[in-house]
Structure formats: C-alpha cells, structure tokens
Amino acid sequence: MRFRNFLSSIRSRITLRLAIILAVVFGVAVPSAILVPYHLSTIESAARIRNNEDHNRLVDILSVILSEPLWQITPEIANISSEVVYSDPRVAKIEVITLPDRKEFIKNDVHMQNQVGPFTSMVREIKHGGQVIGEVKLTLAEDLLRESLRSDFRRYVTTAVLSLFLAIVFILMVLQWRLVKPVRLLMDESDRLANGELNAPITLNREDELGHLATSLEVTRQALKRSFGELEIKNQQLLEYSGTLESKVRQRTQELESVNRNLEAALHNVNTAQSELARVERMAALGSMVAGVAHELNTPLGNCLLVASTLEEETRQLLKMVEDNQIRRSDLTRYATTALDSSKLLLRGLQQSAHLVGDFKQVAVDQSSAQRRTFGLKVTLQELSALLHSSLRKTPFTLELDIPDDIQLNSYPGLLGQVFTNLVNNSVIHGLEGRNHGVMHCTAVKQGEFVLIIFTDDGKGIPPEIINRIFEPFFTTKFGQGGSGLGLSITFNIITNVLGGTIHVTSKPDQGSRFEIRLPLVAPGDPDSNDPLLTEH
C-alpha cells in the first residue's frame, strides 16, 4: 500500500513536459545501449575480415614479385621489389627463405620496432616455373586496426550522447512552442472570456485537440463580436505564414551551404586518392620493369661468365705447358685465337648489358621521381621499348616506332613513359588477346608548339558500347581476372591534368584501335615542382 501511494505521489508530481523528456531519454538511451555494441561488433568483424583479405593479397603479391629475384639470387632487387608492400604501415616484417636449404634470403623488420602488436603472420610458397624455390612470411601489426576500432567506439558513444542531448533540447523547444505556450494562451483566453473581454481574438491554428478547443472558444467569442473577430483572425494568419516562410528560407539556405561544404570535401578526397593511385600504378610498373631487366641481363652476363671461365681454363693449361717446357707454337697460336674470340664475346655481352642498364637507369629515375626535364621523344620511347622487349619477346606481338629525331619536349618523361607503357600493356592484354600475331605502331608528328603521338594496334578493337567508358576509373572488361580498371584512367589524368594535352580514341571491330595524343612541347605548370601529380589542377 505504501509503495502504491509512493508511486501515485511521484506520478502526480511528474509534469507532461517531464514525462515526455523521460520517455525520450529512455527511448533513445535503451536502443543506443543495445545497438552501439552490436554496430561496434559488426564493424570490428568487418575490419578484421578486410584486414585478413589485405593480408592474403599482400602475401600473394610478395610471392609473385619475389619469384624472379629469388631465382636469380639477387637480394638487392628483392628488397626493392618488396618495398611496394613494405610501404604499407600495417606491415611489420617480411622474411624470405630459400628452399630446400631454408636459408634466410632477405629480412626486413624495421617497422616492427615501433609497433605494439599483436602480430599475425602468413606464409606463402614462392614458385618459379612450377618449382617451389622458397617461402615468404608476411607479418602484420594490428596497431592501426585497434586504433580504428577505438576511434569508432568513441565516435558512436559521442553520437549517442549528442543525439540524446539534441533530442531533449528539441523536445523542450517543441513542447514550449506546440504545447506549453498554446495551453497557457488558451487558459488566458478562457479567463478573458470569463471576464467579458471580447475585443482580442482567440487564434490557435492547429488541427489537434488544442486547436478544436481554441475553435470552440473562438466560436463563443465570435457569437458576441463576429465582425471584428474575423478580421483579426485573417491578420494573425498572414503574420504567422510570413514568419514560417522566412524560417523555411533560412533552413533551406543552411542546408545548401552544408551540402556545398560536403561536396568540396569529397572533391578534395577524390583528388588525393587519384594522385595516390597514380603514384602506386607508376611504382608497380617500375617494379615489373625491374624484373624484366633482371631477366634480360641474365643472358649476356651468363654468356660472359661462361666465356671467362673457358678463357681461365685455357690460360691455366698454357701456364702448365710453359712450366713443363712443353709449349709449342701451335699451342700459343690456338690460345691467342681463343683469347681473341673470348675477348670479342666478353666485350659484346658487356656492351649489351651496359646499354640495357643505361636505358633502365634513365627510365627508372624518370618514372620514380616524375622529374621535369628536356628530352628527345625518340630516345625516350626507344629506351622504354628496349625495356619492354623482355615481356613482348614472350608474345607473338611486335612494337614498331616511327619517331622523328628532332622532336624535343620540356615535360615529364617518366609520366609520358607510364602513358606509353599503359598503352602497350592495354593492347597486349585486351586488343591482341588470343591472337597468334599482332603489330603495335607508334608515330609522332610535330604540329607547331604541339606534338601529335598516334598509337595503333591491329587487334580486335573496342566494342562501340564501351568505348565511351574506357577512361572511367575501375572500369574493366577483365574484372576478377587481374584487371584493375585504372590503367587508361590514370593515362587520361596524366595527359590532361599534368602534361596539358588531350587524348582521343577511335576503334572498329576487328580493325584495331587508334589513340591520338596531342601534347604541348612545353608542359604547363611550375618547372620547379617535384611531383606534378600532387599539384591541384
């Protein structure tokens, strides 16, 4: 009985405003207490799944790009190739061992010294020609994942508390505007009618119970003074409508300003992501080129090694005959002939290697640094063609250049080389796929202060329904088959945003594709800029 009396006492003291506030507090707090942990658990699960997928993808990439350096036993190239993956701040350690002797090949654990963990590791076999030649072990730290989860928890808790606070404030405002104030007004009007004051009208434009009550009071007042009451109602309605209209205009203006700020932020994020994608694509192409050059150097250097060992053996035999006093003129003549032939072979192989290394050195500097300089178009494209020869040699396709000697550009040879490489790869992967022969042809014509570069192939062409979409980011006909859809998109952005040119493509089914690139001889922008991809255009 006392408990019931206590509850009755509390209920009698709770006002309508307090009851609604308590209902909102419990209505928002209880679902938040249930949903926030659920959302956080869902976000954590999704983040760990993404982290695991990234872990698998990175270790798969390492097993592929380290195959050739491990086969050639070149730790320096392996370290350079693995930097593409090790640049990820989540990567703690990369270990590579050779099989079957299980000797350490490379090990990079610089990041691990500054990471807390915990750490997860994955191991992949490294194969070359179907043969397992080693293992790569990639260790990731969960520092960034845990920091992201803590940030999500703080954000959700802050959102819940802020939502509760704003709901209470908003309800107080609504109660004051839509309930407390109208009730007080009706009470005053009722007192005024009871006192016989009929000059002021009773106006409450609402369709709920309070509105009906106000209407009843107004009908009572109008029965006494109808003519004056109708005029006052119309004037009051006009004033209220004007105030509501101004409030709506201000609200719409604030919403448009907020949308504009969000759009500007989104555009900035897109430009930043685009620049980062271009840099990653350029470094990936350079890593692939490193593997190709290493493979190309293997043949001439191997020949030189064989010739040098043969010459050493011949020299040892000659010295033995001299010491035994058994040397003859014919032996000396044969040795001289062998030494001359060996020297020619050594010179030819070393010259070939030096030429290839020189070409690669210039191209690597250009593509890794995006430096601006004056260069000859023909020499630059010839250097790139020589480096692409290792990959094209494995295909039935050929690349032909017809570039005049006198075309000089003050531009970015590394970015232009990336455009050329992307066009060649696009033709090989898409245009000439499945064919037993094919020709790619690149020509250039100087047109005043511009140069027109035309790249064509005799492949299967581009279907009319997709030709207008080939420059869109992430659009590819090889989705799920290794195609990223970024090659031609990055090519378009480099030409239009950095090199200051235009690109146009035409194609007919089974008649190949034609890319026309028009570039200024002097690229726009600041000549002292270190990386034009980071410059806003």
UniProtKB/TrEMBL annotation:
Name of this chain's protein: histidine kinase
Keywords: Coiled coil, Kinase, Membrane, Phosphoprotein, Transferase, Transmembrane, Transmembrane helix
Subcellular location: Membrane
PROSITE patterns membership: HAMP, HIS_KIN
UniProt organism field: Undibacterium rivi
Residue ranges annotated for the Histidine kinase domain, each copy included: 292-523
Record-listed E.C. numbers: 2.7.13.3
Transmembrane parts of this sequence: 20-40, 156-177
SMART domains: HAMP, HATPase_c
InterPro entries hit by this protein: HAMP_dom (IPR003660), HATPase_C_sf (IPR036890), HATPase_dom (IPR003594), His_kinase_dom (IPR005467), HisK_dim/P_dom (IPR003661), HisK_dim/P_sf (IPR036097), Sig_transdc_His_kin-like_C (IPR004358)
Primary localisation category: membrane
Coiled-coil zones: 249-283
Catalytic activity: ATP + protein L-histidine = ADP + protein N-phospho-L-histidine
Pfam families: HAMP, HATPase_c
UniProt key word Membrane: yes
CDD domains: HAMP, HisKA
Domain HAMP: 177-229
